[in-house]
Amino acid sequence: KQEVTQIPAALSVPEGENLVLNCSFTDSAIYNLQWFRQDPGKGLTSLLLIQSSQREQTSGRLNASLDKSSGRSTLYIAASQPGDSATYLCAVRHGTGNQFYFGTGTSLTVIP
Amino acid sequence: EAGVAQSPRYKIIEKRQSVAFWCNPISGHATLYWYQQILGQGPKLLIQFQNNGVVDDSQLPKDRFSAERLKGVDSTLKIQPAKLEDSAVYLCASSLPHYEQYFGPGTRLTVT
To answer: 3-state secondary structure string, A31-77?
Structure first.
């Protein structure tokens, strides 16, 4: 069974700092990987989707990378802002079962 | 483009009562997902529909949970009877097959 782990569980950084969030998965037979943001009491907002054949995707200040062979993905946030404060979740779509597996998330606080 | 709609947003019931949640996916999205998110955890897939057929319901507690997607558009998720441990946020998401998932705002259920 696919297991998805996100470390650290919580992170606090000063405004303007660049930061990296980590996601690891146990089964490399994935179809794609998606990063989400979740604000308190809200649903999930899709940030980036990386197909299994891709190495990275970029959107504005966000860059996500994927290393399938090592079972890892990173989300890089440049020049962090207080508005980036939220919980960040990664989810992998398994290649065979078509099921999504979510990590438990990293709670990010950006201090003004 | 309208997003995924869910109702109600909040529901409080007593244990052993029944409850139903409604989801309207993004127009044209054939795939619909129901997730359960317990506080502090990542979402757990309960059931996945492709049009009006069930693709995966392996983690749906079928003795008390049921879901349907008549006509391949709207979907309802029902819990009968509810238990205390069912207190969670119930998220609905939709996607084109194998593409990004888009989430609704969720329904926060409290069972007392």
So the answer is: EEEEEEEECCCCCEEEEEEEECCCCEEEECCEEEEEECCCCEEEEEE
Exposed (0-12), middle (13-18) or buried (19+): which is B76, by Cβ within 10 Å? middle
> What confidence category does residue A96 fall into, taking pLDDT thresholds of 50, 70 and 90?
low
Rg (C-alpha) for chain A, rounded Å, is 13
Q: Do A100 and B106 touch (CB under 8 A)?
A: no
Q: Residue A99 pLDDT > 80, yes or no?
A: no
Give Cβ neighbours of residue A8 (< 8 Å, ≥ 6 apart). Answer: A22, A106
Q: Do B42 and A99 touch (CB under 8 A)?
A: no
Asked if B103's CB is within 8 angstroms of A45's CB, the reply is yes
A75: nearest Cα among B19, A87, A83, B108: A87
Q: How many helices (H) and strands (E) does chain A have?
A: 0, 11
> Coil, strand or helix: which one is B44?
strand
Cα–Cα dist B62/B57, whole Å: 9
At B27, which helix (H) or strand (E)? none
Residue A18 has pLDDT above 90, yes or no: yes
